[in-house]
Amino acid sequence: MIERVLAVVVSYNPDLSQLNAGLQALLKQGCDIAVVDNGSSNLNDVENTISDIASDKLVLLPQSSNLGLGAAHNIGIQQARAGGYHYLLIMDQDSLPLEGMVDKLVLAHKAKSRVSQVSAVGVSYLNVDNGSESFFVRFGALKFARHYCRDKDSDGCIEADFLISSGSLISMQAIESIGEMDEGLFIDHVDTEWFLRAKHKGYTAYGACDAVMQHGLGENTHIVSLAGRQRNVPQHKPFRYYYIFRNSVLLYKRGYASGLWKWNDIQRLAMIGLMFGLVKGPRRANAAMMFKGIWHGLLGRQGPLAVPSVQEPEVSDG
């Protein structure tokens, strides 16, 4: 049986050359593609880029406004369900799959499905911003623990507690069991929430070491030394800290979010708060968004932040 894969690429004001390169690479690897455009201001250019590619395996699904990352992924899921696809591949607009990535993900998914219920299989990535080594994350007793591909198993995989959304291959069977993405989170932790839910239902995620893509953090990155180890910490625009903190608080209140994840995430938020609320500017704007996010999380507010002066969110969750 030939496995049918639908790659869902969410676009929002994309760099057209990066978008074109990613789409061309996916088509060469045998994917069908649905581009879900989240209300880009350069939609005409996006349409022209897709029209120039001229492939019947590529469809554009334009939205009138930014519906958020979860909603965009769900539109792709609905497209995959209607088209009878076996797998959904989530991709960012600026991620570039390297040779054989899709086939290697499918092979890894099949291999791990023989021994466990698989939520998703994710790629290794080459960070184009700083060349850092790829790793996969598990919840640790003290903090998030990094697991590198030098420790891969006989199937070439690393077990992970969650994956970044871009480069994640998910079977439609798993989606039907675990459910679709949480649209209320809008952006940030959309992928984390889904993997927490999947893990609670007995599913396991894996990183496929031989499946590689180029992926950038997209914003300024700071190198921070903690306990003798260096960490790459991305700096976001102030509005992103609203979603990071709010959505963490929202997830803390959900029964399927494990205590170990909460402990690890609280430490992460503390580091973000100290670094970008007290050290790196714009400190006042960053701190204001963090506190607003915490307050709105306690109140249970979801969806987009309805503040006209705040820049509309990006679509990338990675």
Stretches where pLDDT is under 50 for at least 5 consecutive residues are 308-318
- Evaluate the radius of gyration: 19 Å
Mean pLDDT: 90
Distance between the termini: 32 Å
Q: Helix coverage percent of residues? A: 25-40%
Q: Tally of extended strands?
A: 13
- N to C succession of SSEs: EHEHEHEEHEEEEEHHEEEHHH
Proportion of beta-strand residues: 15-25%
How would you classify the quaternary structure? single chain
**Computed structural class:** alpha/beta
Describe the sheet with the most strands.
9 strands, mixed
Anisotropy-based shape: globular
The number of helices is 9
Describe the structure.
There is one protein chain. This protein is α/β, with parallel strands linked by helices and 318 residues long. It has a domain at 221-299. It contains nine helices and 13 strands. It has helices at residues 16-28, 43-53, 69-83, 101-113, 172-178, 190-200, 238-252, 259-279, 283-299; strands at 5-11, 32-38, 58-63, 87-92, 96-97, 118-127, 135-138, 145-148, 157-160, 168-171, 204-215, 221-226, 229-234. The strands form three sheets. Strands 1, 2, 3, 4, 5, 6, 9, 10 and 11 form a nine-stranded mixed β-sheet that branches. A two-stranded antiparallel sheet has the order 7-8. The longest helix has 21 residues, at 259-279. Residues 308-318 have low confidence and may be disordered.
